TrEMBL record:
This is DUF3987 domain-containing protein. Pfam families: DUF3987. It comes from Dietzia cercidiphylli. Residues 521-543 are annotated as: Disordered. It comes from the Bacteria.
């Protein structure tokens, strides 16, 4: 009997193979989404706030992103609910924000958050002291009215004469109605910390919808995930970000209705806690995680000065006055101001929106986080409204300068959100290993390899088949690798290992559709405000994003240089 020949498969790497030809002609889905996360652009903030952010970062020896995120959250708490931006007829953006600053333990988060939010907490304290006598009077009058109504009810119930009982019943009903009609204003609250979802609904209802959760910890996500109740509903938190009306109906309690909710969230959170939130299906599916502006500054631990300069009294007072006046005046007036965009501001918004839209498409730098990036233009408008409210309360028109600054901040948060979604979201670890594998393949010129070959080339970070296999499968799915079926031989023995062919673009100097890395803004402590401003694509003439003055041949804004020379000199002296 003639022995059965080996079962040979078609050579799938033959150029005439349609499947391999399709692989070779295709373009792998880009993996290199890691970006250079820029320093916080404190120069885009109003000068009293930006100067404080810079000084606070220096005094606490933390990255500016901590103080910048906390200051923006405090600004949102001060003005949120009292301003809105009408972008066009039928489309308005409120100005409150959700901000998450990512930092590990020992990063002095509490010190930064406490200093940044102090002016708003001072407003809360002063308003309470002003209203305390009136609140006590209202509570006393309501208590007396309720006791009178209760007595009238008992008298009516004890009356034996039907006629008398009817008279007393009528009086009791009248007294109960009068007591119920006596409203007691809730004590003024601006900021909360460890608040349950149910308590948050009540606080927003009591405060006219305006409330802020500002915390140096990430307990909010623990609350929302159901620490106290497995049936916790986060719908109202989502609606409070959008400014949609909220109605809360609970059994045995009066309904609570919030016409225009404006919830600010400013939290500092450790990476593991945020990773859990990013992998929570309810949070991601509902769009909660897409509503946050993320700041993930580098750690300063191990390179901090042990004797830093404190924040000067002048800078601290300027920051305090700006936020205090904004928060106090808004609450004393009690009205919501509608802002509009100037033609320059609207043009800047449209150009930025077109830029974002292009990057949302296939292969774009924002394609992997569409839910988040779809909201970033609106966030830029919100931040422009906040910056305007802090600088020009007498005008209702947002300037091109303020819109430029809002876009600069939005681009900062975009770079950091990219790091968050690439570094912490579900599957991010596999993607990170895949990027390392591609670099290894390029460095060692592995045109062909087996899984064993790959593990042998990287035994420390690809120690086992269980770790390496998902990475290789991902690279196959993304078009980097082409799987070669082994030759199948009859008889006993271990089957031959699979081989993988590498796409030619891995070895190209400029891979097709490679996503460009976002360049870091040159805003270090000693040269930030003297850095060359970005050229606006909607203006043929380069202009300073702060002053909108035309930049000359030097590439620098004369006003920036003049106004901030003292800061630079001071920084150089300290460095010396």
């Amino acid at each position: 009997m003639t022995p059965e020949p080996y079962l040979m498969l078609e050579d799938r790497t033959d150029p005439n193979s349609a499947e391999f030809a399709e692989f070779a002609e295709g373009v792998p889905t880009p993996l290199a989404r890691e970006v250079d996360t820029p320093d916080f652009p404190f120069y885009a903030l109003p000068k009293p706030i930006g100067a404080f952010v810079h000084a606070l970062a220096e005094s606490t020896q933390t990255a500016p992103g901590l103080a910048g995120g906390a200051a923006l959250a405090a600004l949102s708490a001060a003005a949120g609910g009292f301003y809105q931006v009408q972008v066009r007829p039928g489309y308005s953006e409120p100005v409150h924000l959700f901000i998450a600053v990512i930092a590990g333990s020992g990063e002095r988060k509490s010190s930064v958050m406490k200093a940044a939010t102090a002016p708003v907490r001072e407003v809360e304290r002063d308003l309470y002291q002003e209203l305390a006598p009136g609140l006590l009077e209202q509570a006393t009058q309501r208590d007396i009215a309720e006791r009178y109504a209760e007595k009238a009810k008992r008298d009516a119930g004890n009356a034996s004469d039907p006629v008398k009982r009817d008279e007393l019943m009528s009086a009791a009903i009248s007294a109960a109605g009068q007591a119920e009609a006596m409203k007691i204003l809730a004590p003024p609250r601006i900021i909360g910390d460890d608040v349950t979802v149910e308590a948050l609904d009540s606080l927003m209802a009591e405060q006219g919808g305006r409330f802020a959760i500002l915390s140096s910890e990430g307990g909010l996500f623990t609350e929302l995930s159901g620490r106290y109740s497995p049936n916790t509903d986060i719908t109202n938190v989502l609606m409070a970000h959008a400014g949609d009306p909220i109605r809360v109906d609970r059994k045995g309690r009066q309904s609570e209705f919030v016409e225009d909710p404006a919830l600010t969230v400013g939290i500092m959170i450790q990476p593991p806690i945020l990773a859990e939130a990013l992998n929570n299906r309810a949070f991601v599916g509902s769009g909660l995680m897409a509503r946050f502006m993320y700041s993930w500054p580098p750690s300063m631990v191990g390179r901090r000065s042990v004797d830093p300069e404190p924040v000067s009294e002048h800078i601290a007072q300027g920051y305090r006055n700006t936020l205090y006046s904004l928060a106090y005046d808004a609450r004393k007036s009690g009205v919501t101001t509608t802002l509009t965009l100037s033609p320059e501001a609207d043009k800047a918004r449209l150009v930025y929106a077109e830029e974002v839209e292009r990057e949302l498409g296939p292969g774009g730098s924002l394609a992997h986080m569409q839910a988040w990036a779809s909201k970033v233009v609106g966030a830029a408008v919100r931040m422009a409204g906040l910056l305007h409210a802090a600088t020009d309360s007498n005008s209702t028109t947002i300037s091109g300068n303020a819109m430029d600054a809002g876009i600069i901040l939005a681009k900062y948060f975009t770079a950091h959100a990219t790091r968050v979604f690439d570094g912490l979201s579900d599957g991010a670890a596999t993607h990170a290993l895949a990027r390392r594998v591609v670099s290894l393949i390029r460095r060692k010129e592995l045109d062909w390899f087996s899984l064993r070959d790959l593990i042998g080339a990287a035994p420390t970070w690809l120690p086992t088949r269980e770790v390496a296999q998902p990475v290789v499968e991902l690279l196959v799915d993304l078009g980097y690798l082409f799987e070669i079926e082994p030759e199948r031989k009859p008889g006993p023995g271990r089957p031959p290992a699979k081989k993988y062919r590498v796409h030619h673009s891995v070895f190209d100097a400029d891979p097709p559709q490679q996503i460009k890395r976002i360049k870091q803004n040159p805003n270090s402590a000693d040269s930030a405000e003297l850095a060359e401003p970005p050229t606006t694509p909607y203006d043929d003439v380069p202009r300073c994003p702060t002053h909108r003055t035309i930049i000359g041949t030097t590439g620098r804004c004369v006003e920036c240089i003049t106004e901030n020379a003292a800061i630079k000199i001071s920084n150089q002296e300290r460095a010396a």
